[in-house]
Structure formats: C-alpha cells, structure tokens
Amino acid sequence: MNTNSIDDTPKMSWWNRLAHPGQFVSWTRPLVWPLAGLTALLFAIGLWFAFFNSPADYQMGDTVRIMYVHVPTAWLSQFVYATMAVSALGTLVWRHPMADVSMKAAAPLGAAFTAMALFTGSMWGRPTWGTFWEWDGRMTSTLILLFIYLGIVALWRAFDDQLRAARVVAIFTLVGAVNVPIIKFSVDWWSTLHQPASVFTAEGPKMPPSLLTPLFVMFFAFTFLFITLQLVAMHTEVRRRRVMTLERRTVRGDAA
Amino acid sequence: MNGFWNVLRRDLRLALAGGGEVLTLVLFFIIVGAMVPFAVGPDKALLARIAPGIVWIAAFLAMLLGLDRLLRPDREDGTLALYRLADTPLAAILAAKVIGHWLTSALPLILASPFLALILGMDGPTLGRTLLSLALGTPALAAFGTFGAAVTVALRRGGLLAPILIAPLSVPVLIFGVGAIAPLGGPDQASAAMLFLAALSLMALALSPFVAALAIVWGEE
User: Fold this and answer.
1) Residue B109 belongs to domain spanning
2) Residue ranges of B 104-163 with Cβ closer than 8 A to chain A
3) Which of A14, A149, B47, B120 has an alpha carbon 20 to 30 Å from B210's alpha carbon atom?
C-alpha cells in the first residue's frame, strides 16, 4: 500500500546521513548545547585551577599561568590544520559535501587560535625571555601557519562558486600541510629560544602534576570549544548555502 | 613531447616579443635593490653584510610580479581550454610553463645580479655563492609561482592573491638561499644549505606541474 512506501525506502547509512547537509544539521543540532555546556564547565574548572589552585613557578612566578591559555591554543593551531587537511582529503577523494563545509568553517577558527597562541606567547615571552618576539624556529613557523590560514580564508572568499572553491582550496590546504610537521619538530631541530617539548615526549610529561592537571583540563576545554564552534559554523555555512540556492532559484523565477 | 616544446617556444617568443617585459622585470629587481641603501643608510659594511638578503628579496619580489601574466592571458583568450583538450597532458604543458617562467623571469635576474652586487659592495667570492644559490633556488620559486597562478587562475580578482598564498610556502627557499651565501655556521653549513636548495627545487619541479594541473582542472569544472 501507499502508506507503507516510506518504510520501504532503504535506510540511509550513517555515512549518507553525514553526507547530506540537511541530515547532518538535524542530527548534530541537539549536540550543540550539551557540547557548549561541557565546554563552559571545563573552562570553569580549568580556570579555577589555573588562577587559584596551581602553584606559581619557582622561576617564572605567576606568569606561568599564561601557559594554560598558550599551550592549548598552540596545540589547536596545529590540530585545526590537521582537521582541515583531513577534510581536504574528504573533498578530493570522496567529494563529500560536508567535508567542504568543515574545511571552510575551520579556517577562520584555526586563524583565531593561531593568533591567540602567538599573542599569549608574546605576552609570556616579555617577562620570561625579555623579548616580545624572537625569530626562532617555532615562532617563525607558527607565524607562517597564520599566514597560510589567512591565505586560505582569502582564497575561500575570492571564489563565487563554493563548489569550485572547495576543490581548489583543498589542493592548497594539502600543499600547505607540509608546514605542520615542521612546526611540531621545530623546537627539536633548531633549539634556540623556545623551550623544547615538555608535555608530549617519549619519556612522558616533564612537569609536576600540580601544573599538568590544570593544563590538561584547559586542553580539553579549548578542544571542546573548537568542536562546538566548528559545529555551529558548519550549521551556519549549510544555511548560507541553502539561502544562496533559494536566492538563485528566486532570480531564475522557479521558486519552489 | 612535441606539445611541451611548442608551448615552451611559444612562451619564450611571447616574452621576448612582448615589448620589454623581461627588461621591466630586471629593472624592477635592480630598483628594489638600489632602494635599500636609501632606506637603511649608505653604510658600506652594513650593506655588504645584508647584500645577500637584499638580492634574494629583490629576486623574490620580481618573480612574484610576473605571476599574474603566467596563466591568466592564456585563460582569457581560451588557450588554456585548448591546452586541456590537447593530446599532451596538462601536467607536461605546465612543466613547460614552469621552465618558461624560470627562463624569462629568473634567468635574467641572475644575469643582472652582478650589477646589484657591485652597487651593494659585495665581494667576489660572495658574488659567486650568490649566483650559485640563486641558480639552485629560483627553480623552486618558479614552481611555487606556477602553482599559485594555477590556484588563482579561475578568479577574476585573483591578482594579489597568488603572491599572498605562495609567499609562506617560499620561506624555506629564502632561508636556505641566504644561508648558502652568508653561512652562520661556516662553509659546511653553506654547502648543506646549497644541497637543501637543490633538493627543494627538484622536489618542487617534480610535483608542481601535477598539482597545478589538478588545481586548473578542478577550478574550471
């Protein structure tokens, strides 16, 4: 019978549900508020630890607290780029429409986190190293990462047709990905002013737990902040594309 | 292979017949270099010390100047669409473009750099290393430039975007280029930097035609 026809249609696989923009929005929208709440909670705990319940460093004093913002944003500056590179593969290999959207949403977020990492690093460098800026391997490569992010944002905005833009930006994103490992290993290759890795090392963290716990909480707080903002930005982008399609249809005069 | 040579020959003939475009580029290169003493003061010792950096920056800027003319005219008069239909693979045509770009924009700069070296007070051995490092490093810049031009060729207002996109990618070339001339750690470091430059150029030359071809095909679809 006709009434059964809806049940007869094959169930969409999770992959298809992910690929379909409307489906994606409808099943990820309920996630936004819980994620935002979790982010706020993590920030509350992390900032309380960072300001009131962690010791001042014996060398750096209270300025060590800048670390709780600086290290997570620096980590995100690279993590967001990795997200974009994976999305770029999704665009080029599977032509996955949500990969385009994810790549576009992530670029300004990555640029913001990178700028924050550079800014807090500079604020931290002045009292501890005696300089706002040094042309050292890690700082220089992070600055270049910021330029690449801004270039990608500019490239997205320069295209009218977002589908063509996605593929061209994806190619550029993958070419620019060469820079990320250079940043990661820069402190080991050129040991100048920036301190070498002290959290993720082969021998485990080289930090006392009293500093490490708040750092990890802030780590998760910033990462969940990124995930929340990324989802919201993706929803916005899906809607923007929907509006553009509707406008185009209206202009053509066959509005549905 | 015929298509490759035809494109190369066509690009060279256009550059030479185009009414002094090559000459303009060389003039720009020398003027940028000659502006520096006015900006930092005519201190001979200082100028001699920063001369390698000045020569590299001037060469880098001059090579960026030509990017907008690299593929855009071909797209506007429809040549690029014909290239995509040709028997010769698009990557091979773009390889010819990279080589043509190097021959018409980098080679004249290398030939003109002794003049810049002279007015900046560079000594003989340094000039020799400068010429060698430019010769080894500029192919990478030409390859990156072609990639940047390919990424932005579909854009109507992409003129300034290509330099902004490829400048961050070109930083290693600049670092090793200057490092090969004015080594911080002695002659060993200089020859290591020369090898890195050669490696960067070979890698960029090998990969850029394919990546640029992808960018053109996907940008036009």
Assistant:
1) 2-220
2) 147, 151-152, 154-155, 157-158, 161
3) A149
